[in-house]
Automatic annotation (TrEMBL):
InterPro entries: SAS-6_N (IPR032396), SAS-6_N_sf (IPR038558). Keywords: Cell cycle, Coiled coil, Cytoplasm, Cytoskeleton. Pfam families: SAS-6_N (PF16531). GO terms for cellular component: centriole; centrosome. Residues 160-205, 247-335, 364-426 form a coiled coil. The keyword Cell wall biogenesis/degradation does not apply. It comes from the Eukaryota. The keyword Magnesium does not apply. This is Spindle assembly abnormal protein 6 homolog.
Amino acid sequence: MFNFLSPKDDRFLFDACLQVRVQDDTHRSSRLRLQIQLSTDVSPFSAEIVQLHLFDENDPYACYSAQINDEVFQRLKIQQHLIIEFAAFPQTLVELLRMCSSEESLASPRYQCELRPERISNSAVLDITEVNGFKKLVHLSIRLNQADEGNVRKNMITTLTRLKLDKDRAEECLRAAEAKLHEQQNKYERQMESQRLQIEKMKSDFEHDMNQLRSRVNLEVRRDTDGLNREIQDRMDRLCFEKTDIETSLRSRLNSLEEQIKSFDNQKASLENRIRESQSEIQQVELRLSQEKETNRMLQDRLDILNRTDPGKENAELRLKLAQVKVDLETARSTVCKLNSEKRHLEESLEHKQGQVERRDAGIKTMSEDILRANDIIQKLQAEIKTYHSKLKVRSDVIMKQEELLETKDKELRTLRKNLEGQSDDPRLLQLEKQIAHKDSVIQWLNKKLNELQGHKVDTPLMTAPSPLQENNPATFGRHLSNRPR
């Protein structure tokens, strides 16, 4: 009855571990293996027998079994009011057990198995129950008999055989895994060797490119520096020459204007003297005119008196004197008119000279403004020269920093090669492969940027950027150096 080594005509309908509630003093739940076999009796009638085996894989003495044939099933059908026939009983029992297995993970399973041990009779009752909202239903109760010592030994032998088979399968899997691991290790070593050779080749190419780039950059810097120095010197010479010419022309014009101003001042002084002399002469002539008028009046009075008294010889003399006085008066009047016209002419000449002086002053002021503008232009050109020098210094600093960055990359490549030579475990190999891929991308990016550096001009303002590996982020590296003007 407890033959766990299946006969030739036996077949397993169900074989799984179930969560079984053991209704003993502890009311515990245990994981028990339940096997259902459908075997054929070797009797002449060849009747089918359903065998149930319930045992604990961790406890070889906890072993129960039962055999159900058509006669036993008929008694169960009458006692438990079953409505199925024996032909459908094995499949129905398997379906109930599968429902119990599917609801084990639920907090409140509907279908479950319960085992009620009986110490007196050394047997147990297996109940397959269903819990609904009203009550707990028992679909099937099967009495299981506990195995004796011989069957326990057979069970232990079966368990040991199964464990040995599992051990053999595990050892075979282990050997296969070791072989696969050894193959992968050899593959990784070959990959590491190829990566190392590739890195060495890349390093040599990188050093060759760096030397060429450094020589080209130094040549361009020297050429640009020489050209810039020549251009600055030419501009300085041209500016100095233009400044000297402007100062000479301005100085000559200023001297000529000063001489003209001096001559105009002398002419003005002479004209003012002549005006004063003319005014004094006019005053003298006017005084003489007033005196002559007074004399004429007196003579007229005297003439009137004489006409009334003695119109003789004295009258004639007085007429002669009067005529002479009139002639003198006309001469004085003509002299006064001439002096007045000369005075007006001198005043007009003085106004003309003053206008010329004002125009000369305006010209001097314009020349002063031109001199100030020329000084501003010279200062701006000097500031541009200082800017060119500062740009050249900034570019030299950037080139030095780029050389330092390239030396840092070279050191990191050597460190990476040493790390690759000293590593052998799989996780470390994966990490090293990632680092190698990262370094390859960084090297490609550096080669691209170094090729782009050849197109930079002298007067292009350069901006320094931090090393991309300071943050260990190649995206940040590209973002920093991409800020450089192109």
